[in-house]
Amino acid sequence: MQYDVIVIGSGPGGYVAAIRCAQLGLKTACIEKYPTYGGTCLNVGCIPSKALLDSSEHYYNASHTFKTHGINLDNLSVDFGQMLKRKNEVVQKNTSGISFLFKKNKIDGYQGIGSFKDKNTIVIKKEDGTTQEITGKNIIIATGSKPSGLPFIKLDKKRIITSTEALTLPEIPKHLILIGGGVIGLELGSVYARLGAKVSVIEYMDSIIPTMDKSLGKELQKVLQKQGMEFYLSHKVTGATAKGKEVTVTFDNPKGEKQELKGDYCLVAVGRIAYTDNLGLDKIGLKVEDRGRKIAVDAHLETSVKGVYAIGDVIQGAMLAHKAEDEGTFVAETIVGQKPHIDYNLIPGVVYTWPEVAAVGQTEEQLKEKGVKYKTGSFPFKASGRAVASGDPDGFVKVLADTATDEILGVHIIGPRAADMIAEAVVAMEFRASAEDIARISHAHPTYTEAFREACLAATENRAIHI
Fold it and tell me: Which 8-state DSSP code applies to residue 336?
């Protein structure tokens, strides 16, 4: 079979690339090594974790906040099996949706491991051991990433686990020890903390979610501690061992003193690494960077081999599903001669704890490092009528604007529906809005998004109305 484009991988980057190529009239194939489409995100990442986050949030509210709303419940309990069943149903609906879209757009799907024979020929090794070759004028590598580990910790995937196993545990842990205070770990830690597990977080850096604005990490830690999670910051993990149903994690505190924690599960969530195994990159003269196994690309996301592109987690930049989607569209449009554009500074990041955390643009730390003169406007959700009414007073919106021009340089939110609220900030910054532009735009009352307007008012000559 000959194609205009062959996409290796059907995650958010891969399937979006394939669909956009097909929309543009290119004969397209997509290769996926697993039985279902959707990659990590739909199968063992974004979607199943959000399903569990939503289910656990319902339970947490029923057990902790319903009484304040005048709702009394007796004999409340968790049917963890049903919770996992619902999660699986959500995954199935989403992955089957990709199959429907492939048929609708006349994309040929292949199941198996795709690898290069040469720059235009891909060998597909199927589950039964047989192989098939297809050729394409253009190849898009969209193979994503997998959980990273620590060289001195052996993952048995039963008691010492990754995020993948954390989505299918046979029981709610009594004590979950979490190595890593980043996005993935905190989301999954939140799931089990809400369901009654003791959750201990050991983080090497001096704050959680260390890649985001420090004020967000500080506030999130405060809120999660109120929810029962405990934190060991600036602590260095030295080992983890499992014996029977018990896991022992050893670590050094900031003074270098040795400590240990015992629990029944240990989740290692120290990031992800690009998945470039078995691609046969050496056969086309492509090398990966040793650290992170990333593939180098140019401004058009083309590798050093003409006609071979790479997107998503296998190239530099944040490992985010929506970044990969934008890159998939970008490459498809580049192939047909269009002039697409991506502003990497304006790709938002989100943490789906509760309250949610979301940010776009520059952090205060980045602006200080660059010597950019900026002003700050902040508004707490405890002063928001809508947040008080819904019982979500934790968090704030912080806006960073250029001192001279008032252009918004960064927006950092921790609070209810922050994941949805950040979209307004992205739109504003795409059009290079000033803080005063937002301050002068009418926002419905009462809504959470009024907090963004108030933060912009605060950044504009300290004009916030409700604080």
Answer: T
The length of the chain in residues reads 467
Residues 302 and 432 in one domain: no
**What share of residues in the chain are helix, strand, coil (percent, to 5)?**
35, 25, 40
Pairing status of strand 160-161 against strand 2-8: unpaired
Provide the whole-model pTM.
Answer: 0.96
Q: Which of 64, 69, 300, 445 is catalytic?
A: 445
Give the CATH number of the domain where residue 172 resides.
3.50.50.60
Q: How many domains does the chain have?
A: 3
Please identify, among 241, 270, 299, the residue that sits at the C-terminal boundary of a domain. 270
Residue type, 397: V
Specify whether 341 is catalytic: no
Q: How far apart are CA 403 and CA 293, in angstroms?
A: 40
Structure-token match 């394939």, residue found: 18
Range of the domain at 165: 160-270
Residue at 404: amino acid letter: A
Q: Over the chain (467 residues), what is each successive 10-residue block's mean pLDDT?
A: 97 98 98 96 96 98 96 96 98 97 98 98 96 98 96 97 98 98 98 98 97 97 97 98 98 97 98 94 90 89 98 96 98 98 98 98 98 98 98 98 98 98 98 98 98 98 92
Nearest residue to 19 (alpha-carbon basis) of 98, 134, 135: 98
What contacts 272, CB < 8 A, 6 or more positions away?
Answer: 145, 146, 147, 148, 184, 313, 319
CB 102 within 8 A of CB 275: no
Distance CA 35, CA 143 (A): 15
Which 3 state secondary structure label does DSSP give 403? coil
Distance CA 277, CA 119 (A): 17
Domain final residue pick, 314, 342, 370: 342
- 348 in Cβ contact with 362 (< 8 Å): no
Three-state SS at 162: coil
One-letter amino acid for residue 40 of the chain: T
* Cβ count near 400 (within 10 Å): 26
